[in-house]
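Hi W., the TLP complex you wanted:
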Amino acid sequence: MELIDLRSDTVTKPTPEMLEAMARAELGDDVYGEDPTVNHLQEISAEITGQEAALFVASGTMGNLAAILAHCGRGDEAILGNKNHTFLFEAGGISALAGVHSHQLENQPDGSLRIEDLQAAIRPLDAHFPSTRLICLENTHYRCGGTYQSSEYMRQVADFAHARGLKVHLDGARIFNAAAALGVPARELTQDVDSVTFCLSKGLSAPVGSVLCGSKEFIHAAHRARKLLGGGMRQAGILAAAGIVALEKMVPRLGEDHVRARNLAEGLSEIHGVILQPGTPATNMIFLDLADDVLWSAKEVAEKLGEQGLLVSAVSERGFRLVTHYWIDDAAVDKAVTDFARVLA
Ligand code: TLP
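Structure:
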């Protein structure tokens, strides 16, 4: 049975062009900085994000943690949203490994943090308090529904932070989805922050890896943090080669995933038992709940859909997340709607 996998865009497998590039990649020891393919990926990543330098890392989680280690010392405080991936889904690495105290603020429906809330969260200089060092943003915002924040907002937070001696790190795991939704180059969303992590292995379909970008000085510190985390990889060009194809070929097509997400949401909205969350989908993620008269839980419905060959994520007792990506075509969208209708009939 052919599976349709809507659980996440992390499930994407490399394209034939990526596999070919991986087989042909020129390699060297990246811990010595001698892998030409990794170096090329880092150069184009810095250019795309409007930053000075970049560092290839194993995952989005590693990129975010290396950034926090590079920006903060033990006992410093980072302000972040209570629905941010770093707060919810990164195993508490910010405190467990970086020794950083997290100060959580409520994310607004679009994933942003209010400037008034940021202002109130900054600690006065006083021996009782941890030192506020960093603001962490996320764009697109997974737990807020794949929503995105504008370049004006990114600039506003960066200006606010810099005027107070703070740094801004952006978890831009899906920054190219935000850029596609806004119709702007990604650098407009990334050039004002002090560091950004973006992922190659989500909608861009590369098999492994993320890139952390920032100033030369910051990347120097992040390089050390990556080593500390055990993330120094040797002939990593084999992975970076797929990442280069991802940036060159997959970024321009992300809008197609957004169109398919809209088509899928439209089809699902006509099924009795499905309640789409307001505003969904903003990008490539659809969030929906089961109506009260559906007797099964989301987990039970997900199991029944799995028997039809459709994989979806149950993200709460009654709710699901469905994510479109490169391997979801129009036929897969139609089958997903048919399977939902059959299971909920
Ligand atoms: N998100 C995954 C799961 O961890 C939930 C997913 O399926 O969406 N930032 C954001 C916004 C993310 O969504 C993710 C992964 C990460 C960071 C971490 O990336 P990885 O998995 O490469 O460590």
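The chain has two domains: 4-10+253-344, 12-251.

W.
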